[in-house]
């Protein structure tokens, strides 16, 4: 695969990473934790759907989420077809380094340096919620992406935490007990803990 000679990445810019149907990669449920999955979703102009490409060597980038500050990473540093892509705090590992490979017609492939495989979607799905993974390059449509700069007007708004989802009725009524780890347990785990006492 040739490295990109045409795609120009600005270090101060944010981008959306869009599939053929216009849906974009985002951090699932605006989760800021290590291990949060990267999935496809309709673009809503949100910062957890926006990415910065930080140079990490000649022709290599770390792809950092604007909202969480964490980077795209391979789960468990896996290199097999089907390894999920998630976010993780920045490390020096090659599992977090990606190359932009020109694919023509304004599209690119994102090749992981460690695995020598490209960013892909599980089951070639393109609907909301499709999980990002790596797969060998098969020139599939689900392996092609458009990098679109985020308009400045969207970047001028201060980053704010999204509203917390309203707890469901089941969550509000669940009894909680403390486990030995000091964390609260609810539902079945709470009942198990009380039986073991």
Automatic annotation (TrEMBL):
Residues 185-197 have a biased composition (Basic residues). Residues 155-197 are annotated as: Disordered. Pfam families: RicinB_lectin_2 (PF14200). SUPFAM superfamilies: Ricin B-like lectins. This is RICIN domain-containing protein. Residues 11-148 form the Ricin B lectin domain. It comes from the Bacteria.
């Amino acid at each position: 695969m040739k490295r990109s000679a045409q795609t120009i990445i600005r270090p101060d810019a944010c981008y959306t990473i869009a599939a053929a149907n216009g849906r974009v990669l985002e951090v699932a449920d605006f989760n800021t934790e290590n291990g949060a999955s990267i999935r496809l979703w309709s673009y809503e102009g949100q910062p957890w759907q926006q990415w910065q490409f930080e140079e990490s060597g000649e022709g290599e980038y770390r792809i950092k989420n604007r909202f969480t500050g964490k980077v795209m990473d391979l789960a468990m540093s896996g290199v097999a077809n089907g390894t999920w892509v998630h976010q993780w705090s920045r490390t020096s590992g090659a599992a977090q380094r990606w190359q932009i490979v020109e694919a023509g017609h304004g599209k690119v492939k994102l090749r992981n340096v460690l695995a020598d495989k490209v960013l892909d979607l599980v089951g070639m799905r393109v609907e909301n919620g499709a999980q990002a993974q790596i797969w060998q390059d098969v020139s599939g449509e689900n392996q092609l992406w458009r990098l679109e700069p985020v308009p400045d007007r969207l970047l001028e708004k201060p980053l704010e935490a999204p509203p917390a989802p309203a707890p469901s009725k089941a969550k509000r009524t669940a009894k909680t007990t403390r486990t030995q780890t000091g964390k609260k347990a609810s539902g079945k785990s709470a009942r198990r803990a009380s039986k073991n006492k």
